[in-house]
Amino acid sequence: MKKFVLLLLIAAMVIVGDSYAAGPVIVSKNDRAVVQLKNAALLSSFVKCTPPPGEEIKTIVELAQPPAENEPKAKPVVEQSHYCDSIPLTFEEQGWLRAACEEFNIPYALALGLIEKETEFRNLIGDDGASTGYMQIQKKWHWDRMERLGVTDLVEPSGNFRVGCDFLAELYAKYNDWSLALTVYNRGHNPGYITDYAKEVMGNYAHWQEIVENYI
After folding, report:
1. Where are the domains of the chain?
2. pTM value surpassing 0.85
3. Which top CATH class is 80-215?
4. Rounded CA separation 102/105 (Å)
5. Residue range 102-120: average pLDDT?
6. How far is residue 8's CA from residue 31's CA, in Å, rounded to a whole number?
7. How confident is the model at residue 7 (pLDDT cuts 50, 70, 90)?
8. Rounded CA gap, 107 and 205, in Å?
9. I want to staple 51 with a disulfide (CB 3.0 to 4.6 A). Which of 55, 130, 137, 158 is the partner?
């Protein structure tokens, strides 16, 4: 009988030891949840963390494999606190536009002002098919920019925003003036004066700045 009990204890110790050696342990930030992963190659468990008051519960996802080099850039996660229902873009579109502005150092309200002027916040094909999407990008002039940024579809909002913001950043770096940069964005060259288009976008910029300042 004693030998039988001893064998049971040894077997139990081996099982426990194996469970700890099988893979890494993920611990939530508030130390409330511990997830044992039996296979280190399959990191698919979710750990929920208690958020600060007023914020939604967020889920942490550990990915087993990094994305392949040819895969498109992952779309940014949208933060609930940045969503503004006064902006006529969807929850996801606002997040993608904000991410593009941050990537290329473009004022968020300025991008909103430009989109308002170009398309009144509509994702459309304009100029008899020449201009595409919210920021009215012409592929024939920006195919190399699209290739550099890994953008293949200008109708897809996140790619459209990235190409448009990258172009704006290039123009501002050249002219060091938003009004002049907007003039060239619209005209394709510097006419030597600030156009009504640029003035209207700058007016929209001031309007949206007042609205979004509490959501930055």
Report:
1. 2-61, 80-215
2. no
3. mainly alpha
4. 5
5. 98
6. 32
7. low
8. 9
9. 55
